[in-house]
Amino acid sequence: xxxxxxxxxxxxxxxxxxxxxxxxxxxxxxxxxxxxxxxxxxxxxxxxxxxxxxxxxxxxxxxxxxxxxxxxxxxxxxxxxxxxxxxxxxxxxxxxxxxxxxxxxxxxxxxxx
Length: 113
What we know:
The protein is an all-beta fold. The chain is built from no helices and 10 strands. The protein has one domain (2-111): Jelly Rolls. Helix content is 0%, strand content 58%. It starts with a strand and ends with a strand.
């Protein structure tokens, strides 16, 4: 059984620095999707990583997407992506072109027992 969790959101002005954001769920969850929206068409690289509760040696890259003059990207995991309490999702975006603002919205559901 699952219930929708409150969205985790972040915004980064890419002219000021790269985006690096880690969720803070603290409980078991299922990653539903991550929505990225940019204020202008950007050419940057987005990475979505499992930040494992077992430490950096167990972190796993879930998706890397190179945007080329794009404003939107939606990451929807393949199959079941159930995470344990203590696991988190890290999202990163480069700022090589120093332009635009990037908004990210993480949608997840809580795994109820």
